[in-house]
Amino acid sequence: MSSPPAQGARLVVIGAGAVGVTIALHLRRLGHDVTLLSSDAPGSENATSYGNAGWLSPGSVVPISMPGMWKKVPGYLLDAQGPLRLRPSSLPHIWLWLLRFVACGATRARARAIASALRPFLAGAADRHAALAAEAGVPELIQRKGLLIVYPDEAAYKADAFGWQLRRENGVRWNTLDRAALEAVCPGLSPRYGFAAQLPDGAHCADPGGYVAALATLARAQGVHFADGHVGGFVLEAGQVRGVRSSGRVVACDSIIVAAGMGARALGRMLGDSVPLVSERGYHVQVPDLAEEPPLPVMMSDLKFGITPMRGGMRAAGQVEFAPAGAPPDWRRARILLDCLRDGLPLVKIGGFSTVRHWMGNRPSTPDCLPVIGPSPSTRGVFYATGHGHLGLVSAPWTAELIGRMIGGDTVPEAAPYDPARFLRFRL
């Protein structure tokens, strides 16, 4: 519905996570007058991108919702220790979302469509991030060492055949390793893992929070304005956005880009749009000052968590918990991660829970496993860039390119799967 602003237009980007900061930087380079509005500092602990596992993986095309998932939902409700947790108290609030979520990947054709739509965000992501990090003066934060996905044995790997088929269909390269080869690449892994897939094109960010902060510093140096405050409403004239009300003032604009993560749901409601996001909560624990740690990121396929060497220690991240965004953290999820870490790396000395850093973030997830990127169906001058789930960091550069083209008035047919209008009749 949005009409493109002229070059040099006044644009407000709402949200200072990885997606919002990257969009603001890109739009400024296109010649626009850009203000980045957020109540949190870029790279701060409150941002979901801060606690990201840091993976920049082309292999992440495989959606969470896959054929046969509906059979597992009862188990998720009952298993408090499992890798995917549904709080029973949240069901009244998300059951419609959950039904659509399970249905979106219920057939192989549907899962293939999702994987194909995710591919552009992931293919070449390591190159895009490496270029941004170098320009921001932190090239060391993008590490191109590849990634490992480990399995108990070759039979377990073959049982995951459809996921690997989706990766192959979307251009992902990998080679397989037996136990001897795996031990050479990543010594110290538990003997329970006897087989692995190595993704040579994978990379990781060694400090997601620091990286986003560095990009924000670069954006400021290039002329992006930063404003601190909560969004309280919008100034609309004849169906066109003209300003953002924030902390007792109005920030005038020609267009806005809503990149506020979970906050986009409430902001969309203010604007008359349905942005049906549910919090796909993720947890991490970070162990500092380890004498030995894996030289590259490793995903334990059976335990559904990954470990990543970070600038501040080794981070174990994972666990999916569907719960209301405002509900208190369930730190049992982080304790489970610590137990998994001990199981996966039995030779590494890891202290108790009180000795490690633990964190929880609300990943904004849609019921069809695809982000919401594009113009508002109800208000001119409004664009959305949210709903990336666990792929926000890796997806940020390509999202920024799409938004830049849309703001410039280009037709962007490849963005059709992410169109906000697909949720016109779906409200939570």
Automatic annotation (TrEMBL):
Keywords: Oxidoreductase. GO terms for cellular component: cytoplasm. It comes from the Bacteria. Residues 11-404 form the FAD dependent oxidoreductase domain. InterPro entries: FAD-dep_OxRdtase, FAD/NAD-bd_sf. GO terms for molecular function: oxidoreductase activity. The keyword 4Fe-4S does not apply. Gene3D superfamilies: D-Amino Acid Oxidase, subunit A, domain 2, FAD/NAD(P)-binding domain. This is FAD-dependent oxidoreductase. It comes from Nguyenibacter vanlangensis. The lineage of its organism: Bacteria, Pseudomonadati, Pseudomonadota, Alphaproteobacteria, Acetobacterales.
